[in-house]
Amino acid sequence: MNWRTPLAEPIALSAGDRQFVTLRDAAEFLTERYSKAQGGVLAGTIEDLIVASADPTPEHVRRATDQFARFLADENLVVGRPGSTGGDLEQRTRDMLAGRRSKAGQAKVACGVKRRRKQPRSR
């Protein structure tokens, strides 16, 4: 396992007293502070960190980073992060409602993937 793998992006506590840069930083914080806590989000966060340390692909590291950030936000330890998945989802939703294509949609168009068009209804 490679616990020295950097998170997808650094995460700082809102108090400014601690910053998390690697999977080890996140795991040590959770085990120090929440050693007796159990359940849901905490268990999922720890599992994602373990998976990312065992197989540090960008997808696993991103998932672990986002899950850790969500956990910290749920504990009111960080303020919303602009690069987090939640923010991306909100932005994608606003873009969709405004009729704009996402970066993924733009990439598909650039690669020649055709977008299905709605057929007009015939009466």
Notes on the structure:
The protein is mainly α and 123 residues long. It has a domain at 6-79. It is 53% helix and 9% strand. It has a two-stranded antiparallel sheet. Helix 1 (23-33) packs antiparallel against helix 2 (40-54) and helix 2 (40-54) runs antiparallel to helix 3. The protein is extended, with a radius of gyration of 19 Å. The termini are far apart. This is DUF982 domain-containing protein. Residues 97-123 are annotated as: Disordered.
Compact summary:
By secondary structure, the protein is mainly alpha-helical. It has helices at 23-33, 40-54, 58-74, 85-98, 103-110, and strands spanning 6-12, 19-22. The protein has a domain at 6-79.
Outline: extended
| Share of helical residues | 40-55%
Q: Helix and strand succession? A: EEHHHHH
| Average predicted local confidence, pLDDT | 75
Which structural class matches the secondary elements? Answer: mainly alpha
How large is the share of residues in beta strands?
A: 5-15%
**In DSSP terms, counting alpha (H) and pi (I) runs of 4 or more, how many helices?**
5
Main beta-sheet annotation: 2 strands, antiparallel
Distance between the termini: 62 Å
Low-confidence stretches: 82-87, 106-115
Neighbour order of strands in the largest sheet: 1-2
CA-based gyration radius: 19 Å
**Total beta-strand segments:** 2
